C-alpha cells in the first residue's frame, strides 16, 4: 500500500499528495461502533471500509473542490440529532464521536468514534429527514461538507466521479445496515 501524505494549507484548503500510485488509505472507513471505541481504533479498524478506493489524486481534488472545509474544536457539534440538513461530511483530520440518547442518567452514549476518511450524515443527505445522531469533535478536526448542490455541480463537471461517489455511499450505507442487523 502506498502511503498518502496530507497537509492542510490554511490559505488554499486541504491538499493531498502521494509518492507513486495513489491509494486512498486516508479514506479507510471504520466498520462500525464495535470497532471504533477509541480514536486510535477509529483510524485503524481491521475491517475498514474504503470510500472511493480507486479514486485518483485528481478525483479527490475535484471532489473536495465542491465542499466547504471547516475547522472544528474539541466539543464542537458537527451534527445535531433532530436537525434537518442535507449535507454529508468527510472527516479530513482529527476525530468525531457519534452519540445517541440512552446513556446513564438520561444522557447520551457514545456509539462510535470516526477518524480521517469517515463519511457522516449520509442518511439525511439522501432522505432529507432529521439527523439521527449527534456528532461531536473529540479533538481538533478538519471536515469537508458536501451539499446536494455541490454534488450536482460535480456531476455536471465530472459525471463519472459523481456516479462513483453515489454508488460508494450506497455501498457504505448497505454495509452499515448489514452490520446493524448482525448485532
Protein described:
It is globular, with a radius of gyration of 16 Å. The chain has one domain (4-158): Sandwich (Jelly Rolls). It has five helices and twelve strands. It has a four-stranded antiparallel beta sheet with strand order 5-12-7-10. β1 (4-9) and β2 (13-18) form a beta hairpin. With 183 residues, it is of the alpha+beta class.
Question: Which descriptors would you attach to this protein?
Answer:
5 helices, alpha+beta, single chain, four-stranded antiparallel β-sheet, globular
On the 0-100 scale, what is the average pLDDT? 76
CATH fourth-tier homologous superfamily: Jelly Rolls
How much beta, percentage-wise?
Answer: 25-35%
Q: Uncertain spans, ≥5 residues at pLDDT below 50?
A: 1-48
Main CATH class: Mainly Beta
Task: Give Rg in angstroms.
Answer: 16 Å
- Give the number of helices: 5
Largest sheet, order of strands side by side?
A: 5-12-7-10
Content-based structural category = alpha+beta
Measure the end-to-end span: 31 Å
The biggest beta sheet reads:
4 strands, antiparallel
Percent helix = 25-40%
What CATH architecture would you give? Sandwich
Record field, number of beta strands: 12
Summarize the structure.
This protein is α+β, with helices and mostly antiparallel strands and 183 residues long. It has 5 helices and 12 strands.
Amino acid at each position: 500500500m502506498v502511503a498518502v501524505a496530507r497537509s492542510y494549507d490554511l490559505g488554499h484548503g486541504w491538499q493531498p499528495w502521494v509518492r507513486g500510485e495513489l491509494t486512498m488509505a486516508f479514506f479507510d472507513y471504520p466498520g462500525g461502533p464495535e470497532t471504533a471505541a477509541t480514536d486510535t481504533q477509529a483510524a485503524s479498524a481491521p475491517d475498514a471500509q474504503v470510500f472511493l478506493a480507486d479514486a485518483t489524486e485528481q478525483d479527490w481534488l475535484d471532489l473536495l473542490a465542491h465542499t466547504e472545509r471547516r475547522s472544528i474544536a474539541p466539543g464542537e457539534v458537527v451534527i445535531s440529532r433532530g436537525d434537518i440538513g442535507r449535507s454529508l461530511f468527510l472527516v479530513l483530520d482529527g476525530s468525531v464521536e457519534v452519540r445517541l440518547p440512552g446513556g446513564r442518567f438520561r444522557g447520551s452514549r457514545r456509539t462510535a468514534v470516526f477518524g480521517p476518511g469517515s463519511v457522516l450524515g449520509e442518511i439525511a443527505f439522501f432522505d432529507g429527514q432529521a439527523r439521527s445522531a449527534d456528532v461531536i469533535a473529540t479533538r481538533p478536526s478538519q471536515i469537508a461538507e458536501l451539499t446536494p448542490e455541490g454534488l450536482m455541480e460535480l456531476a455536471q463537471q465530472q459525471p463519472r466521479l459523481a456516479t462513483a461517489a453515489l454508488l460508494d455511499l450506497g455501498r457504505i450505507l448497505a454495509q452499515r445496515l448489514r452490520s446493524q442487523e448482525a448485532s
